[in-house]
Amino acid sequence: MNILVLNGSPKGERSNTVKITNAFLDGINTTQENNINLVNISQKKIEHCLGCYICWKKTPGICIIDDDMSELIKMYINSDLIIWSFPLYYFGMPSKIKAFLDRLLPTSLPSINIKENQSCGHPGRYDLSHQMHLLISSCGFYSVKGNYDALFKQFEIMFGKKLSKIICPEGELLNVPELSGRINSYLSDVRAAGKEYFQHKSFSEETLHKLDKLFYPPEIFIKLANMSWELDNTEDGDVSDTDRLELFLRQMAALCDSSMFIKDIVFEMHFTDLNKTYQLLLEKETCTVKTEDFLPYTTRIEIPFTLWLQFSEGKTNGSEYEKDSYKVFGDTEILLKLKSFFSN
Ligand SMILES: Cc1cc2nc3c(=O)[nH]c(=O)nc-3n(C[C@H](O)[C@H](O)[C@H](O)COP(=O)(O)O)c2cc1C
Q1: Distance from the first to the final alpha carbon of the chain
Q2: Which of 139, 193, 217, 303 is the most exposed place for a label (fewest CB within 10 A)?
Q3: Does the pLDDT value for residue 232 go beyond 60?
């Protein structure tokens, strides 16, 4: 199968959405190696359509503008599956992928026909009846409803029953390494969806149900998202170690499932590489981060922050070698239960 992937994120390969698209491509390639062309639209020279209709009148099928679109149109008409991979921008598509879409005009004929639902359209210049379309998109909010309505309508009008969708709300969380457990499980569902799509050219209800599940419930997501905007960047745009550390702890607090505690717990962390101490106060209804006025601890761990991050990202679970790198004081049982407190 010839697959054309249109990466419409201005962030190119750093795109959140492309992470999902790559997982889908891994899945679709499990059964058979497909011929995949991945185009980073942001790096292509694509002028805006001039609306001159020269591609309909003087030079049928050929645009007057000499840029990358002539090559891209060839790829487009020779593809069996078009994957539209882009973030949601202002409830629609980013401007450069819209420019790409407008420039597909030479692939249509000028005559007007009436479609099933009494709306109008132009017939295609080429027989693309076999072509399928998949919209893969991520967005910043947690909701699909009210957010994607306009884009869905547009894509449904254009591609009708040939369209499938993978939509990922809370998309910025794809970037948070500490949440890799939840993110990787989503990406493995996307991989499975890719395999299924290869066989059936659509997704089952069960797959859609899995893919529709939010990473985190809205109230936790909003806390996580709002926290990340509070970060003070250094002059060169990097986040300082202390800010990253404090954000991380506040994220931990937001993800905490307080129904797991049978008693209040003061969990103290001393990060040996940064020489900083923090406490997580795990109480019945809340989990808070303390940076001063410390309380007597239930459990204290002395550990390099780098190693703590690796634990939380699931990159290690404490080898014999690592055991010499940290010390635990007080109720050591709490450390073993910690993962279940943050199972969110
Ligand atoms: C200009 C702009 C407009 C955006 N508009 C929306 C929007 O309407 N709804 C939404 O949920 N997220 C919106 N977002 C957030 C992005 O869709 C979100 O961060 C996405 O995951 C980025 O994906 P990418 O890394 O693939 O570019 C917007 C972001 C930008 C920069």
Answers
A1: 39
A2: 217
A3: no
Give the pLDDT confidence score for residue 56 in this predicted structure. 98
Phi, psi of 216 (to 5 degrees): -140, 150
More confident of the two residues 78 and 226: 78
171: Cβ below 6 Å to ligand 1?
yes
Q: What is the pLDDT of residues 252-266, one digit of tens each?
A: 887 777 676 678 899
Please name the residue whose Cα sits nearest to atom 31 of ligand 1: 89
Q: Which residue has the higher pLDDT, 114 or 300?
A: 300
Which residue's C-alpha comes closest to atom 2 of ligand 1? Answer: 89
Query: 249 and 324 share a domain?
Result: yes
Same domain, 202 and 303: no
172 and 271 share a domain?
A: no
Does ligand 1 lie within 6 Å of residue 131's CB atom? no
Residues 86, 91, 92, 96, Cα dihedral to 10°: -70
- pLDDT at residue 313, as a whole number: 72
How many structural domains are present in the chain? 2
Provide the sign of the torsion angle of the four alpha carbons 324, 329, 332, 336, taken in this order. negative
Amino acid at 24: F
pLDDT of residue 330 exceeding 90: yes
Give the Å distance between the CA of 160 and the centre of ligand 1.
Answer: 25
Assess whether 29 and 113 both reside in one domain: yes
Enclosing domain of residue 206? 2-219
Whether 271 shows a pLDDT value over 70: the answer reads: yes
Task: Read off the pLDDT of residues 56-69 as tens digits, 9 standing for 90 and up.
Answer: 999 999 999 999 99
DSSP secondary structure letters along 194-239: HHHHHHHSS--HHHHHHHHS-SS-HHHHHHHHHHHHTPPB-TTSPB
CA 87–ligand 1 middle distance (angstroms): 5
If you search the block for the tokens 């407190």, which residue do you land on?
341
CATH of the domain at 264: 3.30.1050.10
Dist. CA 204 → ligand 1 center (Å)? 27
Residue 229 in any domain: the answer is no
272 found inside a domain: yes
Domain boundary among 152, 187, 219: 219
